[in-house]
Each structure stands twice: as C-alpha cells, then as structure tokens.
Amino acid sequence: xxxxxxxxxxxxxxxxxxxxxxxxxxxxxxxxxxxxxxxxxxxxxxxxxxxxxxxxxxxxxxxxxxxxxxxxxxxxxxxxxxxxxxxxxxxxxxxxxxxxxxxxxxxxxxxxxxxxxxxxxxxxxxxxxxxxxxxxxxxxxxxxxxxxxxxxxxxxxxxxxxxxxxxxxxxxxxxxxxxxxxxxxxxxxxxxxxxxxxxxxxxxxxxxxxxxxxxxxxxxxxxxxxxxxxxxxxxxxxxxxxxxxxxxxxxxxxxxxxxxxxxxxxxxxxxxxxxxxxxxxxxxxxxxxxxxxxxxxxxxxxxxxxxxxxxxxxxxxxxxxxxxxxxxxxxxxxxxxxxxxxxxxxxxxxxxxxxxxxxxxxxxxxxxxxxxxxxxxxxxxxxxxxxxxxxx
Length: 392
Known about the structure:
50% of the residues lie in helices and 18% in strands. It is α+β, with helices and mostly antiparallel strands and 392 residues long. Strands 1, 3, 4, 5, 6, 7, 8, 9, 15 and 16 form a 10-stranded mixed sheet that branches. The longest helix has 44 residues, at 292-335.
C-alpha cells in the first residue's frame, strides 16, 4: 500500500498542471454549493436575529422592504421622510416610545445615523472607550469604523457632502468622536451615531454663524432694525461646533416639522403592540408600520428560491465534471498502456497496477476535499460582506 501511494504521488507530482486542473475543478464543484449553503444559513440567522429584536418600524407609506433595510441595516435607500410631529403623536398614545432615525448622510463611506441615546439602550450597545454623545457636534463610532479608519476618542470625522456642486451653501460637519462602541457583529459596527440634531445641521436646517449684533461691516450686514439683523451671503457658516460657537447654532422652523427617516417603536407590552398595529391597519394613523421579522422572512424566501435554482445547476455541472474526470482517467490509462505493461513485466500484478491507479484518483479527491473544506472555513469570515453585497 505504501509503495502504491508513493508511486501514485510521484506520478501526479510529475504531471502538476493536469493534476492542478483536476483538483481545482473538483474543489470548486464541492465547495460552491456547501459554501453558499453556509453563507446563506448564517446570513439568515443574523438577519432574523436583528429583525426579531425590533418589534415595529414606522415610516412614510411606500416600500416596506426599503423601510426595513434602511432602518435596520442603514443602507442608502431613499425614503420619504416623516416629521417629528408624527414621532410625538406616537409617543403620546401611551403604547410605548419611538426612537427616531435619520439617515442619508455618510462620512468616508460609512453611514451617519442621527438618533437619540435611547437607540444604544434599546440595542444594548455598550462603550468600549470614551463617553456617549452629550452635546451638538459629538458622535460615537461603531467598532469597525474606528478599526478600519484608525480613529480614537478625541479625533474628528467630517461628513461627506452629497454633491461636489452644493449651491445651497451647506457645509460638511466636523464632528468630535467622544466614544467607540463595543463590537456587536451587526450593522451597528459599521455606523457613525450622532444626535439627530447634528443630522439636521448637516441637512442645513440648523447652522451657526458669527455674532452680528454689533457688526457694522456693510459687506456682512444688510440691515439691523429693532434688533433683527439681516445678514449677507458673506457671513461665515461654521462647519465645526465648539464650545465658543455652540451658542450661535440655531434651527430654522419648528422642530415638529423637521424630518425623520423612520422610527423604531418599542411597545410597553404585547397588548400595546397589537392595539397599535390595529390602528395602523385601519388607517387611523397616516404612516405605515411594518413588522421587520415578516419583511426579512419574505426577503429571505426569495433568496432561497434563487438558491434552489443554483443548486440544480451545480448538480448538473458536478455530474458533467465527474463524467469528464472519468473520461480523462480512461484516456490516461490508454496512453499509459506501455507503462502499465512495463509494470507487469517487472512483476507487478494487475491488482497492484489497479491499486496504484486508484491511489492516484484517491489523492486527487482527498486533496480536493481538503481544499474545499479550507475554503468552507474561510467563507465564514465573510458573512457580513456577503450580506451587504449580495442580500441587502
């Protein structure tokens, strides 16, 4: 047996290119269906866990899938906003409380999530270092954001402009990093959290500028009548909130009219949730409420139907590969007719020759299975990337 393995190994090592092609083909055929099954199964578990932990999402009427994806995974889905007045309306019903979320802005390709400290409490996310956001201009980073950008508490991060041609005069906001969150293995790790008021400032609803009360420069002040100052476009707009200029920041309009992308509703109990859902279904409330678990389940069912088609294709391709492999081995044996005759002449039995040839096939199959298993293990580290790129 040992001698047969040695001769088989020497032969396949001598024919490296042919061996590599065969081993690679078998590895791919074995790995792809099993690896895809692993990725989709783990993706389902993680997506369903996050969806199940969120009782209800409320937003403007439209696509429930977009609403859930934006609210749970912070993907850049364009949603029609609701107003803070609708947040207050739900809070006043007494069934629970709302956590407002405002997305749509990024900093170095990471989503900025405007919300309240209730979000961190609801998700049970603790701080790895630093402290929670306490005033305008503060933000806290998800674990992966801090790691990948090499940022620490006390550093700053600047929001990215929506367009290089922003004629509205809205400046990117430079935010101070006050804390870094512990890893959660969820989309929260790749998000930047800040008070919702900061996202309103990024939108241009709020801003700060230099004090004009005692300013007489005609290039800055168009008029000053009864304490009401009319400024020119030359007035400098702050893009960083500091202790010195914090008092100059103000908002235009009433807060009840300010936009919110969506709301996470946290009910007091199951009965309160059921009653509230009934009011939404009867159109007593103008917005829509969706149960994330149901939406994500429907989304995953669509993915699984596609996977079943792929499985059928893989089986057909695998069968074709097996037939080609058998054909190659049959032709190889014919080409090695003189070699086999030589082995028989020097005393090898037909059983021994068959054993050597079988060892060659076994070594290639075992190598293929080993490589497929290694790829299977490695694929587990890319679940989050798989979800982001191929599922949502």
